[in-house]
Amino acid sequence: MNRLAPSRDRLRIAIQKSGRLGTPARELLERLGLRFQESRDRLFCHGEVEPIDLLLVRDDDIPGLIAEGVCDLGIVGRNVLSEFRAENGRDPATAPAEWQPLGFGGCRLSLAVPEGLNYATPLDLAGRRIATSYPALLAEWLRSQAVAADVVTLSGSVEIAPRLGQADLICDLVSTGGTLVANQLREVEVILRSEAVLAAPGTPLPGLRGELAGQLRGRLAAAIGQRNSRLLMLNARRSQLSELLPLLPEGEPPSVMALDGDADGVAIKALCRGTVSWQQMERMKAAGASQLLVLPLEQMLP
Ligand code: PRP
Ligand code: ZN
Questions:
Q1: What is the pTM of this model?
Q2: Which end of the chain is more exposed for a tag (fewer CB within 10 A), N or C?
Q3: What are the Cα distances from residue 261, in Å, to 194, 235, 255, 265?
Q4: Residues 148 and 15 in one domain
């Protein structure tokens, strides 16, 4: 059997093999409690906890793999997904679509001009040559601005195109802005704000894969919402509660539980947003708290 043919009962997620999004994508899935065993060719990762496998590929291939049904879901930049949709059409029944933003890999697709090229409005682009790896998104944006410019499609090293005389300006991803500075380019227009997203096929997945995909989406959304949350646990005397409870870090209302065989003792459990500082812990200890524990969250179902 072809290992890459869609299997009936296992969910297959395409992620970037290397590059900006690959490692954080895998770390996010592992934070949900999933574990993977990499194949020797580093193309396939077998899911060991749930029937969820990974395919490690070039990011630009991910939307196509979902559209063809080779993969069920993908973790990919909105920039790559949007370019695929702009190029191949947005038929809701067939086009892979954004299912859940994932809150990492933030960047923007921007126009940038070399020193010496004046830019005030999009109309200044008329007749200019613009180098990009995102020709469909750029062409759409130019149409929306009613400007006619030449789109020069390059697969990489877009930032050096003006110096090589291939183009007058560029339309490329900007993350820190370091690449633009190094190439003496000035960002003048943002065309798309991007981050990593969970991409899914237009038509819902059937059967068990559909169920798993829905669960995964829910857990991803929850994990992103609780990304900075911690579980705080501590013991105290009941008489100290009025002084202690106001010192708990911001978060959900705490649970206070009686301790077996200790009439005056309580255990407190609180879900906190953000980190718990040393100072906060010292203040709670001074107010009578003992056995203070701050735990990271792995999974949570409200
Ligand atoms: C992008 C883009 C720039 C660089 C910008 O490539 O093409 O070269 O990142 O980042 P900076 O603003 O932090 O300097 P990237 O490697 O992300 O992906 P790609 O090769 O798939 O385009
Ligand atoms: Zn790429």
A1: 0.82
A2: N
A3: 56, 14, 19, 9
A4: no
In angstroms, the CA 57 to CA 15 distance is: 6
Residues above pLDDT 70, as percent of the chain: 97
Which tokens is 234 given? 């501590």
173 forms beta bridges with 109
Residue 273 within any structural domain of the chain: yes
Same domain, 179 and 112: yes
Q: Encode pLDDT of 13-44 as tens digits.
A: 999 999 999 999 999 999 999 999 999 888 99
Same domain, 97 and 200: yes
Ligand 1 pocket, residues with Cβ under 6 angstroms: 19-20, 59, 159, 172-179
pLDDT one-digit tens code per residue, 156-214? 999 999 999 999 999 999 999 999 999 999 999 999 999 999 999 999 999 999 999 99
pLDDT at position 90 is: 94
What CATH number should be reported for the domain holding residue 275? 3.30.70.120
- Whether pLDDT at 1 is above 50: no
Tell whether 302 is covered by a domain.
no
Domain span at residue 257 reads 229-296
148: three-class secondary structure by DSSP: coil
Residue 289 and residue 185 in one domain: no
Distance in Å, CA 232 to ligand 2 centroid:
41
Q: Is the pLDDT of residue 301 over 90?
A: no
At 96, the amino acid letter reads P
The CA radius of gyration of the chain, in Å to the nearest whole number, is 25
Q: How many domains does the chain have?
A: 3
| CB of 195 closer than 8 Å to CB of 77 | yes
